[in-house]
Amino acid sequence: MELSSRKRNLVLSILFFLPVAFILVMLLSKDNYNPLDIVQKGIVELPANKDNIQLKDHITILSFLGEKPMENSTAAFNLKELVYDRSKGFKTFQVVMLLPYDAKSEAEELLKEIKSYEDLRFWHLVYMEDSDIKRVFNSLRSEVELDENLSTNMVFIVDRDLNQRGRLDDRTENEIEANKPLYSLYSYDCVEVAELKNKMAAEDMRVLFKEYRDKRKGDFDDSSQRRSKDLKQTNE
């Protein structure tokens, strides 16, 4: 009888403390995340433009549509559906697409197709000289080059302080355990749906938004950037 009572008390104790322990773990770990790495500092600000679109003080997805934007329509539609629609509610978020002046007519046509009946208030087309497009692009850290039309399917994340964000270590857990060579992710391929959906939208943009929410509340710990510095030194 006494043994049965002890077992019952043990079971009740476990049932009581298990949820409490789970909640404590969640509370202790909810802010324990690694901010999205700074992969390049000092991204060049946009030159003066008609709509006064700037990178500073915004969380920007920066795209280069080039002289023939309709040829990049798949990339633009993917970006809109998989990233923009999930991110447009966050304060200061924007998508900025850089194009030469000659591309204006075609770009406006593409925008109409993307827009249909939806709100694209935070989606901006910015026209500029070819040399200015190259100057902005060359300030980014990239493993790709602009093609002859000044375009690329890759898009870049620029934070409110003109820092480019990405991943200094893009290895999977299995690759890290297997001690595979380190590789990075500086930009995101808009043709690769899985990369946009699973890496950029579901993880990286979400983490960056959380960082800025925490900064507003005074909960952000800059010491977490030590990981970024260590990885960057390893990668150089």
Task: Write a concise keyword list for the protein shown above.
236 residues, Glutaredoxin, elongated
Roughly what is the average pLDDT, rounded to an integer?
Answer: 85
* Helix/strand structural class: alpha/beta
Q: Quick one: CATH class? A: Alpha Beta
DSSP strand (E) fraction? 15-25%
Silhouette = elongated
CATH superfamily: Glutaredoxin
Number of domains: 1
Compile the SSE list and pairings:
Blueprint: H1 2-29, E1 37-40, E2 59-65, H2 73-87, E3 93-100, H3 104-115, E4 123-128, H4 130-138, E5 151-158, E6 164-166, H5 173-177, E7 188-189, H6 193-217, H7 225-235
Parallel strand pairs: 2-3, 3-4
Antiparallel strand pairs: 1-6, 2-5, 5-6, 5-7
Helix pairs in contact: 2-6
Structural notes for this entry:
- The chain is built from seven helices and seven strands, in the order αββαβαβαββαβαα.
- It is elongated, with a radius of gyration of 22 Å.
- Helix 2 packs parallel to helix 6.
- Mean pLDDT is 85; it is low at 20-31.
- The longest helix is centred in the N-terminal third of the chain and has 28 residues, at 2-29.
- It has a single domain, classed as Glutaredoxin.
- Strands 1, 2, 3, 4, 5, 6 and 7 form a seven-stranded mixed β-sheet that branches.
- With 236 residues, it is α/β, with parallel strands linked by helices.
- Helix content is 44%, strand content 16%.
Brief summary:
The protein is α/β, with parallel strands linked by helices. Helix content is 44%, strand content 16%.
